[in-house]
Write a structure and sequence with these properties.
Layout (H helix, E strand, L loop, with lengths): L3 H11 L12 H4 L13 E7 L7 H8 L2 E7 L11 H11 L5 E6 L14 H5 L30 H18 L3 E5 L7 H7 L2 H22 L5 E5 L8 H6 L7 E7 L9 H21 L4 E6 L9 H16 L6 E5 L4 E2 L12 E2 L14 E3 L2 E6 L2 E6 L6 E3 L5 E2 L5 E2 L3 E3 L3 E6 L9 E5 L19 E5 L2 E6 L10 E4 L3 E2 L2 E11 L6 E10 L9 H4 L11 E6 L28 E2 L13 E6 H8 L3 E12 L2 E12 L29
Parallel strand pairs: 1-2, 1-9, 2-3, 3-4, 4-5, 5-6, 6-7, 7-8, 10-23, 26-27
Antiparallel strand pairs: 11-12, 12-13, 13-18, 14-17, 15-16, 19-30, 20-21, 21-30, 22-29, 24-28, 24-30, 25-26, 25-29
């Protein structure tokens, strides 16, 4: 039987990837057809951890199907309703895009009880306590912060056989295109090896068992099934080279930390090596195996979200670094966390999508090169320029005029601060659309509104020559509300205005807008010493506010922490405010009323420290008719006149100075 890897390699060679010579045959031939959307410059691998399978609404499934090159899905095997069972989620994703590989998520080097697919191996190991790797005192070694986690002894043939059977069964039973292993280490960590106390021979046997399992699994899986490992880690010396030895036994690999490490550099040497370690070394490994699928995931330092524009700049830096070494089957995604749920510490979660992903640079026309301290790579339709982190600001002088993704002319001398990237397009891009959303319902389609499962009385109604959306209470639904993602693409916008017609007789009806905000207030002082050491304690400010639109007859005030924040409660202890006092009101008199919600004016009245940035979604509770929904936006300029990027600022508003070069 032929391996899936053989087909990937043949397709890559047939596509003329040309990495050895540093050239490509143009946009149409650089990417292999092994993944969908070969025409895209930037392809996306979605790694999704669902806090609730019910998030896989028809709109979200369609959104992923239109953009994803592959999906790793970590979700509960049984959903809150059969419609959201794991097998049904997979089937709906495949229906949206049959060419998109969907991989189920699991552990191999760790087991813990969880209803998600990652815990499938847990029951096998629970029934065989002798498979747990124990320390010298006979206690099971816990590899993870979860107290219930255990480390299996994969050197035992019976343990590997059980894992192989479990994986093969899941691939067949769940209808997936393969498997993605999280935290797949080739070698036993020095900490765990010391705890086990079983010598160098055991450590070597562990590494051989890691390779053997992948080799046997890929041989046993049917043709076309994929095996992905996470991952290619550079956090300590020798780790990346050791993990790269697994690439001979897999079809795909994830790069979990790219561009920056999540923690600030601890020493001057760490600062000096950050770009080489978290960019160049990883790109070298990817280019040494150009026939593999790579999921490259860039993140900000410390996972902390400093502000909308700062986040966009960090994202562009990660993308620029990726483009320096993009290979035919590699994908890129920037986010602070894989999870699909609201808020928490980063806000840029699993479905976060940036307008940069839609840039058309064509194919690379050569390898990366260095000039004047800048790293560059030419593309058919542009140029990528990267100023490495912690190596000082740089001046870039283009050889010919170009344009930023925001349409500004690039000519003369440009200052590129360290840790920033400049993408120069050969042709001026079109202006961003002034209207981000327009739902008029004249076609008879619900336009991506999520109707709860079991909701049979909601849909498009035509009355008096007018088509509109009728939303009704869904008492037998999984969730008794209706929702739509109304601004799913992250772009730089200065101002937004949402307008819509509304009609209701329900005095308890509520329309909720989830608004992403920058909280300009000083970070709260954490008095408790233990709380200060908690993850993300340094940035516990408000990431979202909820605008609550109610009928004038409803005089009640909702609690500051209400039950109806889209996608569940806010995470990480945030105090998410509900804005009710300054919001426009309408009468529940059964007549149509026009509402205009200017978020800038609204938040200025509510509190100047909250700056609205984006409206990700709208939610409706109660008996409501809606029509003529329009979201207008005014694009923001990305850089200041004269071609100088703004200096990033920290949370207190002080300018961040470059990290000084270490003394030699």
């Amino acid at each position: 039987m032929q391996h899936a890897r053989f087909h990937v390699a043949c397709l890559c060679l047939a596509a003329g990837c040309g990495l050895a010579s540093g050239t490509s045959g143009g946009s149409a031939t650089f990417h292999s057809g092994r993944l969908p959307y070969p025409e895209r410059t930037v392809r996306i691998g979605f790694w999704l951890g669902c806090s609730d399978n019910a998030i896989f609404t028809p709109e979200v499934v369609e959104w992923i199907g239109q953009r994803a090159s592959f999906v790793v899905l970590n979700a509960a095997v049984k959903g809150p309703h059969p419609y959201f069972d794991y097998t049904n989620c997979v089937a709906r994703l495949k229906a949206a895009n049959p060419a998109m590989p969907v991989l189920f998520y699991r552990y191999h080097h760790m087991f813990l009880p969880t209803p998600r697919t990652g815990g499938l191996f847990y029951e096998d190991v629970r029934r065989h306590p002798e498979w747990a790797l124990c320390d010298k005192a006979g206690r099971p070694i816990r590899p993870h912060r979860h107290n219930a986690s255990r480390l299996p002894d994969i050197t035992l043939p019976a343990c590997r056989e059980a894992a192989l059977r479990s994986t093969m069964d899941a691939v067949a039973r769940l209808g997936v295109d393969g498997v993605a292993f999280d935290m797949y280490h080739r070698s036993l960590s020095s900490r765990h090896a010391e705890a086990a106390g079983r010598g160098d021979a055991f450590t070597a046997a562990w590494a051989q068992a890691s390779e053997d399992y992948l080799r046997r699994l890929r041989f046993a899986l049917p043709d076309g099934k994929l095996v992905l490992i996470n991952g290619l880690w550079p956090m300590r010396d020798g780790l990346l080279a050791d993990q790269a030895k697994l690439l001979n036994e897999t079809d795909a690999a994830a790069v979990e930390y790219f561009g920056y490490y999540v923690h600030p550099p601890r020493t001057p040497e760490d600062r000096d090596r950050e770009f080489a370690r978290y960019v160049l070394d990883i790109l070298d490994v990817m280019e040494s195996h150009p026939d593999l699928i790579y999921g490259v995931y860039a993140r900000s330092r410390r996972y902390v979200y400093l502000g909308y524009e700062e986040d966009y700049l960090v994202q562009r830096y990660g993308l620029g670094c990726f483009l320096l070494g993009m290979t035919p089957l590699s994908t890129f995604k920037y986010h602070s966390h894989f999870q699909l749920r609201s808020g928490a510490h980063g806000r840029t979660w699993g479905l976060s999508y940036y307008a940069d992903y839609d840039l058309d640079l064509g194919a690379p026309s050569g390898r990366r090169y260095r000039r004047d301290g800048l790293w560059m790579r030419r593309y058919d339709k542009g140029l990528v320029v990267v100023a490495p982190s912690a190596q000082g600001d740089r001046i870039f002088t283009p050889q010919q005029k170009g344009y930023t993704p925001e349409g500004e002319t690039v000519e003369g001398d440009w200052l590129i601060p360290e840790g920033r990237a400049l993408i120069v397009l050969a042709e001026r891009p079109p202006a961003p659309p002034g209207t981000a959303l327009e739902d008029r319902f004249e076609s008879g389609a619900p336009n991506a509104w999520w109707f709860p499962v079991g909701d049979a009385d909601t849909g498009i109604v035509r009355e008096g020559g007018r088509s509109f959306l009728r939303l009704r209470r869904a008492g037998d639904a999984v969730q008794p509300w209706h929702e739509r993602r109304i601004q799913p693409v992250r772009r730089l916008v200065r101002k937004q205005t949402l307008s819509f017609d509304i009609r209701t007789r329900d005095t308890n009806a509520v329309v909720l807008l989830r608004v992403e905000v920058d909280d300009l207030a000083p970070a709260p002082v954490i008095e408790d010493a233990a709380a200060r050491k908690a993850p993300y304690a340094e940035d516990r400010r408000r990431p979202y506010a909820v605008v609550c639109l109610q009928p004038a007859e409803n005089g009640s005030r909702r609690a500051d922490q209400g039950p109806d924040i889209p996608y569940g409660q806010a995470q990480a202890g945030y105090d998410v405010p509900y804005l009710t006092g300054a919001t426009p009101r309408y009468r529940a008199d059964g007549q149509w009323h026009r509402l205009d919600v200017d978020t800038e004016t609204l938040f200025h009245a509510a509190g100047r420290h909250l700056k609205p940035r984006r409206i990700p979604s709208i939610r409706v509770l109660g008996e409501v008719d809606l029509d003529e929904i329009v979201l207008r936006q005014e694009p923001a300029r990305f850089s200041t006149p004269g071609g100088r990027f703004p200096r990033p600022v920290n949370r207190q508003g002080r300018q961040l100075q470059p990290i000084p070069a270490p003394r030699r």
